[in-house]
Amino acid sequence: MTTAQEALGSLEHEALLALDGVEVSVGLEAWQTEFLGRERGRVTQALKAIPSLLPEERKPYGAAVNRIKVKLEEALELRRFQLRARETAARIASEALDVSMPPVGRPAGHAHVLGKVRDDLVALFRGLGYTLAEGPEVEDAWHNFSALNTPEDHPARDPRDTFYLPDGLLLRTQTSSVQIRHMKAHRPPIRIIAPGRVYRRDAVTPRHFPMFHQLEGLHVDEGISFAHLKGVLQAFADGVFGPGTVMRLRPSFFPFTEPSAEMDVRCVFCGGEGCRICSQTGWLEILGCGMVDPAVLESVHIDAERYSGFAFGLGIERIAMLRHRIPDIRLLWENDPRFLSQF
Amino acid sequence: MRLPLTLLRRRLSGTWTLEEVGSVLARSPLELEGVERHAPGMERVVTGRILEALAHSDADRLRVCQVDMGAMGAVQIVTAATNVQAGDIVPVALDGAVLPTGKAILSSKMRGVLSQGMFCSVEELGVSLAAEGVWVLPEETSLGFGVAEAMDLGEVVLLLAVPAHRGDLLSAHGVARELASLGLGELVPLPASDKVTSTSGAAVELGVMPEGVEAYSAQLIEELDVVPPSDPEVARVLLAAGLRPVDAVVDVTNMMMLEFGQPMHAFDASKVRGGRVRVREAQAGEELRLLDGRDVRLRPIDLVIADDVGALALAGVMGGAESSVGPSTRSLLIEVAVFDPARVRATAIAHQAVSESSQRFARGVDGLAISGLLAEAVRRIILVAGGRAGAAVTAELSAPPARCEAIGYRPERTRRLLGVSLDDKEQLRALARMGAQIEDGAPAWRVTPPSWRRRDVWREVDLVEEVAFQNGLDAVPALLPAAELPVDVIQPDVQSLVRRWATAQGLDEVMLPSLVPAGRDDIFTARTPVDVAEPMGEFQVLRRSLWPGLLELALKRRREGADRCGLFELGRVAWRQADGVREESRFAALLAGSMVDGPWLRGPESLAPDVRWGQGLLNSLVASLVPGALLEWRSEPLDGLQPGRTAVAGDSAEFVAAEVHPDVLDAMGLGGWSRVVLLEARVESNPRRRPAVGFKVFDRHPAARRDLSLLVDEGVTAAELGRVIRETASDRLREMRVFDRYSGPGVPEGKASVAVALAFGASERTLKEVEVEAIEGELLKALEEKLGARRRS
């Protein structure tokens, strides 16, 4: 064995020993530079010694250097793999979190149950082809009463029931006033819904609050009949209380519709057996409706011989309270977080 | 209306049950709101079975009984009764009962042994005077039930809601007529209509009737016996109906009213001065003492029954105290009349004298059958109080009775309006059941409604309704109307969008009253409130701002220990302007505490919201509604908000993000949160159709990015810098973002260091380095010229 080959042997030994001594993967770079560096690495240096050897020694020496180079490269890869694995394992061990801790960020908020029901109803009726209409909360008596065929001496006009302003205007008592405003501005076909806040001078009790929300529907066109009203209400009942909800219409009276009816659905709590919520009747009263009275159409100069229509008005509070079994209307206005967070 | 079943049975013959009444009423505009058993004194008398009856250790005559009360458990009763034994079912008056005799029952010890009530006799329950001893009930009686239900005692009362326009239903006869027309039972006809003849020269004369009197008849009854007290049977029915028994004569008039819907009034004929009654308008200032003892000052609009001297009664509303029937009455004048509904209502309300009578007149009394009713009343009075019928008078009317005219009716129109295929025959039958007279004709029939419906049926559509109800609404099919989709069906409903966006931001929606105390919103606005004429407690004016309500809630949450608060509301505000009332729909929000969850993160204070968070939220809101929309914020001082931290965007403060003024926080006691951020945006809730956004070809070549660090005077805003940059580099500018602003150590006094990130580009190619430098040079020049900004070295 020549001196050169002996030197090679100790280079290999030294390099492998040094590699074992590298404990972090970033240290491998220095080792690589020292032994396998392209310019000044010691393996490259060893190759540079070839010209100084005897011709017959050159070939075996060169082959030996290449063998060492390959060996060291493999050893480096292995060592890199070992160190990475060790370091990753250490990182994983040190970074473990209790992921059951609350996450960073803001949990989603809660829509108010009245807002939710309003949105559901709006989506339902929009899907049935009704567009949104709006009107002012501060109204005049003509839009709120007279044009709706409510006689001058009707009890609903009494200042004990209606909030009047000092100048004779009033806070609308029903969203039906929007019907009139819309029909004044538009000609049939008219298909609208008007959700909104209304006011009545009711004392605050579990069932009443001086302001509440209604949703009014109005459909006026040629050939609109009571059967259409029933069809739309059945679709509404299916949408709100589930498909196949049984409904009935009971004769009733409103100044602005004729024939007028009240809509009941088979009690969703007892299935019609009779329970406390439906006062043992098996039915829940849902809304008032009817065919638009010709006097109303005439008050907005729509030809009642050519056009007919239906209207309905429901209480959003009532739907919300029924759907979610809320026993007291005041809960809706209290805004207690323990209430709000349930919806 | 409280309708005792006894009265309904008098007017509706045939075999029918209460259940049938309920189901038939669901097809009529009468609403059965409930059924009540009126059995005063029996509320706490319950059926029970005696389990054992043992001798009282300390009293020979007493026995100690254990009684099974069914679902109510067991009680112990000490009794002296001898006719009961173990196994008997008996009525047990429990602690707190007050029997019909007036006897009060209390739980007490009898000779040292607890007795929780008392066994009752038939007499004690007011059922009969006959039997002795405790009432032993039939063996099959259920335990733990009210004895009134179990033994069908007292009076069953139907609680009926009568629609405002159906005055004809305010009586047993009216309800019976309705039920019979819908196929239940048979209506008992009204008393035969004896002709009331005016006897000239009689003891009582009538003057000419003024307007407002639709019919007027009266008859004398002379040589009465002493008017006896109320009959117990009659009193029971009157009480069940909610009326007070007075004496036998007044009770007859009230029973007639309940039965037939026709109010009547009896005057003591000896109190009619001058022997002549008339109906007239009251004289201004005329006074009358009413039956209820109050003195009222009359107005000329009020109709009164008067004699030669003065007013005797308020027509149709209430009798006078002076002329009322009493024990000393020996002759009386019984009046049956019909007055104008509106006048009676107005008078009753004006004098706070709304009565059973005025309510019936106000809703319209038939009046075309009054002669028969007068004769019936006279007959009944003579039956209870003796006497003989005297002169009868009927008034001449100044105007004929209200409309009762034939209406043109087209069966085809009913089919169209209802959407049903009801043939002519069926419609004819329906109208006949209602009591109408029909003359066939083409294309329209002539239909005359019955007299009792003349006030609410006078148009074709009223007959359509009647046919619809008679035929049953169940018979109408359910059809969805065919209609094209509205133009805006794909436009979102803005309110739902805002609600969803806001909850996704972690805000909770609240719903607050819109009528608020008068000065509440003054901290934030100087606008004139819309006030209501008669406030109800705190409900005084419409709110002008949504913020105070949110602040009050936040304060409440803070006091309850909340560490953060994020609330929003969608609602209207209103105020008064020179030209009237203005209303606006708004979104408002409040942020306080920490923006994110996780106090376990280090430094939660740094996550406290300030005005910048608020602006960011509103930017996000606007962009979520209108893609690409961006708010340009400016500083503007607003009441109640911290100057320098109040950001406004859009026309006349359409958007506001701000921090509450520290003084307001202190005054409200919200100091625990160093900052409270308020947001507001005008929200148009009605969606408008927006044109679809057209696609623009975008630059695919990489942009050249540059950061500019500038030194500006402190007064120069980011918005101003942005404007100059956009103007100068308009077609080459791809992006611009001011990302830092700093003043303090290292920056000269009065100056601020501002950093702007810019990206430049050109369509179709990549900008060369020299071109970018040229743009940069132009920008710096313009910024220096227009804003005095210099590049920071």
What is the end-to-end distance of chain A? 88 Å
* Biggest sheet descriptor of chain A: 7 strands, mixed
Largest interface: A-B, 84 and 86 residues
**Biggest β-sheet of chain B: count, sense, barrel?**
7 strands, mixed
Number of DSSP helices of chain B?
18
Classify the beta-strand content of chain B into a percent band. Answer: 25-35%
> What is the helical fraction of chain A, as a range of percent?
40-55%
What fraction of residues of chain A sit in β-strands? Answer: 15-25%
Written as H for each helix and E for each strand, in order along the chain, the element string of chain A is HHHHHEEHEHEEHEEEHEHHH
Low-confidence stretches of chain B: none
Short description:
Chain A is built from twelve helices and nine strands.
Structural overview:
The complex is a heterodimer of chains A (343) and B (793). Chain A is an alpha+beta fold and 343 residues long. Helix content of chain A is 42%, strand content 18%. Chain A is built from twelve helices and nine strands. Chain A has helices at residues 3-21, 28-36, 42-48, 55-95, 113-127, 141-144, 176-185, 226-241, 294-299, 316-324, 330-334, 337-340; strands at 131-132, 138-139, 170-171, 190-199, 211-221, 247-254, 257-266, 283-292, 308-315. The model of chain A has no long low-confidence stretch (mean pLDDT 92). Chain B is 24% helix and 28% strand. In chain B, strands 27-31-32-36-35-34-33 form a seven-stranded mixed β-sheet. In chain B, a hairpin with a 5-residue loop joins strand 5 and strand 6. Chain B is elongated. The mean pLDDT of chain B is 89. The chains are: A alpha+beta (343), B alpha+beta (793). Chains A and B meet through helix 5, strand 1, strand 4, strand 5 and helix 8 of A and helix 7, helix 10, helix 12, helix 13 and strand 27 of B.
